[in-house]
Amino acid sequence: MLKSMTGFGRAEVTRGETTILAEIKSLNGKQFEVNLKMSPLLKPYEFDIRNLLQQELQRGTLDATINIKQNGATRPVVINTELARYYHQAITSMATDLSLPQEDMLNVLMKLPEVVTPASEQMEKSEWLEVEKVIRAAVAEMDAHRADEGAMLEKDLLLRIDNILLYTEKVKELDPLRKDKVRTRLETLLAEYVGKENVDANRMEQELIFYLEKLDISEELIRLQNHCRYFKDILNEADAAKGKKLGFVLQEIGREINTTGSKANDAGIQQWVVMMKDELEKAKEQVLNVL
């Protein structure tokens, strides 16, 4: 089954006074990129979080937010009295020099950098394990979302490939008629400009065979069918991340379609080639979203 790179996952758990929230949104991207926003307490575990996301989600452009909120009671804090005293002296001196009011000085001091700091800047191992569980739950929800999107992508891609195979059969039906048209056209031109009685039949047959070989598209059609079958085989592979491989096969399919069109020299075949190209472009757009 295919998986899309597009998805969303959310998980939230409350333990006592602490609420852990993880939200992950993913869009398509050539590689793995993550924009990570998280609580300062999780900084020591940033590498672990990024590693976890890359291992589980593999590819895509991610926006991940992981928050730890305190409900009611908060973590103990430390007030740096010495720093507050230094700030107070400096502010008082400046206010005196500038004749500024000095009311509500405590409120001002408490908001200055490093005056009030958490008592502990580190998260306990047990707390991190709880956070990890929440992240994995959000990843699991996203993975399910990706699988649902992938099922729709697979259905559409199979339709496009089946249409290309159908149009290939239409071209194969027209190919013998095309050769007869080429032979008739050349014979008519030679009779008109050279005269039928002046044409060397053996030489003409040799030239005609050489000309038709240059226009032969049988090998292109065989390779085109083989590439389409290989595309379907890849869809059935167990590996979840196969978007790049599918993209490469579509490039090969496009190469055979283009060569068929350039060698066709027939309006009827060209119409089917145009329809193949239309299906191919739709398939390419869808593959851009495949994991």
From TrEMBL:
Pfam families: YicC-like_C, YicC-like_N. This is YicC family protein. Residues 172-290 form the Endoribonuclease YicC-like C-terminal domain. The lineage of its organism: Bacteria, Pseudomonadati, Bacteroidota, Chitinophagia, Chitinophagales. Keywords: Endonuclease, Hydrolase, Nuclease. The keyword Oxidoreductase does not apply. The keyword Nucleotidyltransferase does not apply. It comes from the Bacteria. Residues 2-154 form the Endoribonuclease YicC-like N-terminal domain. Its cofactor is a divalent metal cation. Belongs to the YicC/YloC family.
